[in-house]
Amino acid sequence: MAVIANDLKRGMAVKKDGDIFIVLGTVHRTPGNKRAFVQATFRSLRSGLSSDHRLASDERLDSVNVSREKWEFSYSDNTGYTFMNPENYENMTLTPELVEDVKDFLSENMVCEILFIEGKAVSVEPPASVTLKVVESPEGVRGDSANNVQKTAKLETGLQLQVPLFIKEGEMIKVDTRERKYMGRA
C-alpha cells in the first residue's frame, strides 16, 4: 500500500531506498516561489540512525504493516530490558540499544507502548508523563529565589533534571517524557 508524503504521520513506518524507516516527525514547507515539500525525520530500522529527508508533497512511499501493543516493564539486567504482556503473561527481552532513549523513565510495572513492524519490536514509547522519586537534590540557598531559579535533581532511574528549589529528596515528581522536563509534584 502506498502513502503520499503529505499524509505521513509520526509513528508510521515506510519503505524507502530498500530500508524500513519509522517517521519521527514531519513539517510541510512552502518556500516563496518554489514547489511545496515535506521535510521528514526518519529513523532507520537497519542502522538505528535518524536522518532528515526532503520529499515532494506528492511523492509516494510504500507503507509497512505496523502494530502497537501495551506491555509492562518488569526489570533490566545484563541481558537487556524485560517486558511482560499483561494479557498472556508472555515475557520479551529487548536490547539496551532499542530502549536507549526511554530507559531513564522506566520503572517497575510501567505500561509502555511497543511498536512492532512485521512482528519485530522496533521501539518503546513510555507514557506522556511519569511519576518518579527524587533521590538526590541539593538544598536550595535561602534568599536565592529571584525568578524561577532551578537546581539539578537526580531521580530514581538515574535521570538528572532541572527542578524548582523547593523540591526535596524523597519527593515524587511528574516528568514529561517527550520534553524531559519537570511538570510538578505528584
Report on this model:
The strands form 3 sheets. A 6-stranded antiparallel beta sheet has the order 1-6-2-3-4-5, with no helix packed on it. Strands 9-8-7-10-11 form a 5-stranded antiparallel beta sheet. Strands 14-13-12-15-16 form a 5-stranded antiparallel beta sheet, with no helix packed on it. It is mostly beta strands. Helix content is 2%, strand content 54%. The protein is flat. It folds into 3 domains: 62 residues, SH3 type barrels; 60 residues, Nucleic acid-binding proteins (OB fold (Dihydrolipoamide Acetyltransferase, E2P), Beta Barrel); 57 residues, Nucleic acid-binding proteins (OB fold (Dihydrolipoamide Acetyltransferase, E2P)). The model has no long low-confidence stretch (mean pLDDT 87). A hairpin with a 4-residue loop joins strand 15 and strand 16. It starts with a strand and ends with a strand.
What is the fold's blueprint, element by element?
Blueprint: E1 2-4, E2 13-16, E3 19-29, E4 37-44, E5 50-56, E6 60-63, E7 66-77, E8 80-84, E9 91-94, H1 96-99, E10 111-117, E11 120-125, E12 129-136, E13 150-155, E14 160-164, E15 172-176, E16 181-185
- By secondary-structure content and strand pairing, the structural class works out as mainly beta
Number of strands: 16
**Beta fraction:** over 45%
Mean pLDDT: 87
Order of helices and strands: EEEEEEEEEHEEEEEEE
If strands are numbered along the chain, what order do they take across the biggest sheet?
Answer: 1-6-2-3-4-5
Instruction: Report on the biggest sheet.
Output: 6 strands, antiparallel
Q: Name the overall outline.
A: flat
CATH class descriptor name of the largest domain: Mainly Beta
Distance between the termini: 45 Å
Query: What Rg, in angstroms, do the CA atoms define?
Result: 20 Å
- Fraction in helix: under 10%
CATH topology assignment of the largest domain: SH3 type barrels
Stretches where pLDDT is under 50 for at least 5 consecutive residues are none
Q: Please give the domain count.
A: 3
